Amino acid sequence: MKYRIQRSPVHGLGLFASREIEKGESLGVFEGVDLDVKSRERGELEMLESSHCIQVVDDSGATVRARLGTTPLRYINHRPPGARQNCEMDWDSWEFFATRKIPEGREIFWDYGSEW
After folding, report:
1. Alpha-carbon span 31 to 82, nearest angstrom
2. Smallest Cα–Cα separation from 94: which of 38, 14, 34, 13?
3. 61: which strand partners?
4. Dihedral of CA 42/44/48/50: which sign?
5. In the chain, where are the structural domains located?
6. How many helices and strands (H and E) does the chain possess?
7. Which pTM was predicted?
8. Beta strands of 23-102 (E only): which ranges?
9. pLDDT in tens, the chain (116 residues)
């Protein structure tokens, strides 16, 4: 296994490399439940606010796609101030890739965007 879930000094639980991960290596696909972003049902709207939900927004900031994660990748935390992200996601395939070498034991971070 490439990673493990454990307590994060940044926020709650985090995803950590359980072995060295090479730059460009796939971390896997952010699999889960695709949410109907046009739905006005209370349950769907609450799931959009989940910490394990990735939202794809357009230039106006409107959510156009959203997925509630069901795999360990949902524990990737936002990079803390002063830290660099070490992975990114392909927005078409929902697949995460290492953007640089990630040493064993290092937390895996992604930049969620300036709103976070």
Report:
1. 29
2. 34
3. none
4. positive
5. 1-28+78-112, 32-70
6. 1, 10
7. 0.82
8. 26-29, 32-34, 53-57, 63-69, 77-78, 87-90, 95-98
9. 899 999 999 989 999 999 999 999 999 999 988 877 776 555 555 555 656 777 777 777 777 777 888 899 999 998 888 888 999 999 899 999 999 999 999 999 998 776 54
Cα separation of 72 and 53, whole Å?
12
CATH topology of domain 1-28+78-112: Beta-clip-like (2.170.270)
Which of helix, strand or coil describes residue 5?
Answer: strand
CA 9 to the chain's CA centroid: 17
